[in-house]
Design brief:
By secondary structure, the protein is an alpha/beta fold. It is about 25% helix and about 25% strand. Bound molecules: zinc ion.
């Protein structure tokens, strides 16, 4: 319903996978995993908004994989029922977070490393995943094509999000493909040049 992008990264050799932001539609995610014969080694949550984390419990039960989320978003996750209420949705069941995903934390998938970057601002515990071997960045709701994450929800901070983007994301190579939490992919170079929120 909320059109969140869920990313599934799979390694062709080890058949291991990392799933980022399973908001909902867990049956679809499991079907993709089955089709590619992948087993999930980690579930990573970029931030604790319901459209990104709503399906984490179901996916964890189905796969046994640990859930990674930044501890600064725990209060938001504790308020998941409230988030559901605002949207008029059934509250999804909650799970426990297994690993505090903070800067310095690295996940491995085959020969690729997934580096956690702290990018607070959209929420206090928002993270991005930088995958140098793949030249890809999973940006959650921090950076979008032509836009940035909203900061008017609880925990949002407009100065922090700009600082995060300028110091952590725009310093990456311009050729990096950015996979945002909503909408189309972009690149660091394109957003540096054209994103109206990042000029001046
Ligand atoms: Zn969000």
């Amino acid at each position: 319903m909320l059109q969140c992008n869920c990313s599934i990264f799979g390694d062709e050799q080890t058949r291991e996978a990392i799933v980022v932001d399973p908001g909902d539609n867990i049956a679809n995610i499991l079907a993709v995993l089955k089709r590619h014969q992948l087993h999930v080694k980690a579930i990573v949550i970029t931030h604790a908004h319901i459209d990104h984390i709503g399906g984490a419990e179901k996916l964890k039960v189905a796969t046994g994989a640990p859930v990674y989320m930044n501890a600064n978003d725990q209060p938001l996750y504790d308020g998941l029922d409230e988030q559901a209420q605002w949207l008029g949705m059934e509250p999804p069941s909650r799970t426990t977070i297994d690993v505090d995903a903070k800067e310095g934390e690295t996940l491995h998938l085959g020969s690729a490393q997934f580096l956690v970057l702290d990018t607070p601002g959209h929420t206090q515990g928002s993270i991005s995943l930088w995958i140098p071997e793949e030249n890809k960045l999973v940006a959650g709701d921090t950076l979008f094509r032509d836009s940035i994450g909203r900061t008017d929800l609880p925990g949002g901070d407009s100065r922090k999000i700009l600082r995060s983007i300028h110091t952590k994301l725009l310093t990456l190579p311009e050729t990096v493909t950015v996979i945002p939490g909503h909408g189309a992919n972009t690149t660091i170079g394109r957003e540096k040049e054209r994103n109206p929120f990042l000029q001046g």
